[in-house]
Amino acid sequence: MRPALLALLLLAACGPGLDLRGLAGPGEAGRRGAVEIAVKGAFPQVLGDIAAGGGPALEAAFDAAGVPEGDRAARTLQLGGDLGLYEANPGALAAAIALMG
């Protein structure tokens, strides 16, 4: 881990009022927002696509996250294995997909 990043993480742990969310930059925030909209706007369809091994709603979420085409089949299997975790939590699913990009 980079020393500067480690220092920021330690500062965040020590300082309750320190907000590091803005360090990701506006582009990252916009990408995460787009993923959240894609997932939450079609949540039942995204879940169905994951269970089916793929589909247009899941592809839209992957597109928003910037998940490489070559990684999508493996990521779909990964999401399918954890589907029980995401069925009641669209925010967690959006975060998981955003992290894949």
> Roughly what is the average pLDDT, rounded to an integer?
79
Specify the structural class: mainly alpha
| Strand and helix order | HHHHHHH
Q: How far is it from the N-terminal to the C-terminal residue, by CA? A: 20 Å
Instruction: Indicate the overall shape.
Output: globular
Strand content: under 5%
Rg calculated over all Cα atoms: 16 Å
Largest sheet report: none
Helix percent reads over 70%
The structural domain count equals 1
SS elements, strand count = 0
Low-confidence sequence ranges: 18-25
How many alpha or pi helices? 7
Outline of this structure?
The protein has helices at residues 3-14, 26-41, 43-52, 56-65, 72-81, 83-86, 90-100. It has 101 residues and is an all-alpha fold.
Report on the structure:
The structure is a single chain. With 101 residues, this protein is mostly helical. The protein has one domain (25-100). The protein has 7 helices and no strands. The protein has helices spanning 3-14, 26-41, 43-52, 56-65, 72-81, 83-86, 90-100. Helix 2 (26-41) runs antiparallel to helix 4 (56-65), helix 2 crosses helix 7 and helix 3 (43-52) packs across helix 4 (56-65). It starts with a helix and ends with a helix. Mean pLDDT is 79; it is low at 18-25.
Could you list some keywords that capture this structure?
101 residues; mainly alpha; 7 helices; 72% helix; 0% strand; globular
